[in-house]
Amino acid sequence: MSCPFCQLDSTKYYNEIIEETKNFRIIPGLGALTPGYILILPKKHCYSMTNFNAELMLEYQNIIHKYRKLFKSIYHKYPIIFEHGTPDPCGLCASCVIHAHTHIINHHYQNEEAIIQQLNFQKINNLTEIKKDQNYIYYQNHQGQEYITYNFEPISQIMRIFIAQDLNIKDQYDWRAFPFENNIHQTINDLKNKLK
Question: Could you identify which of 69, 102, 115, 147 might form a hypothetical disulfide with 139, taking C-beta atoms 3.0 to 4.6 angstroms apart as the criterion?
């Protein structure tokens, strides 16, 4: 089965590359729940960021740092960030595409503590603490605090479900059914204008 992130169909508006670095591509997120929704994709096929070597991890962290600042300058607040990770492409996890992709979203949870409790998130100090042999959800809040959970029900798009509920659009979490095309176009314009 082909990987849609390895073979980006450039004819699709939602695959427009916002920025490309040595090892990563930044594209808008299909199903952009808000204006300001992007994905960080490694060019090399990896199951999750725990597969990154030291060089990729440093570049990845620099990209996150850069886009946190960009979102703050455009949307006047820092974004939230998450990744569903798995060590097993055939196992159950919360990701729809088994190719590492990190979501950066222009959103702050109104009741973050409830989400942290419901998904059993625990604070971590850096990405090297993430276990490489378990399914996980990594989450970074707008303040930059990092969290990890291994104890969650592997429901597809689980983080998007929580975000959609928080935005009062709980029935529109599914990116397949609700692409939010206007938000995608606004994301592309906002970021490309700032990156010029």
Answer: 147
Token digits of residue 44: 């090399």
Rounded-to-10 torsion of CA 34, 195, 139, 72: -70
Which range marks the domain in which residue 108 is found? 13-195
How many domains are contained in the chain? 1
Asked if residues 158 and 137 have their Cβ atoms less than 8 Å apart, the reply is: yes
- Strand 24-28 and strand 19-20: the pairing is antiparallel
CB 104 within 8 A of CB 81: yes
Tell me, what CATH number does 60's domain have? Answer: 3.30.428.10
Count Cβ atoms within 10 A of the Cβ of residue 94 and give its class: 0-12 exposed, 13-18 middle, 19 or more buried.
buried
What tens digit of pLDDT does each residue of 73-86 get? 999 999 999 999 98
- pTM over cut 0.90: yes
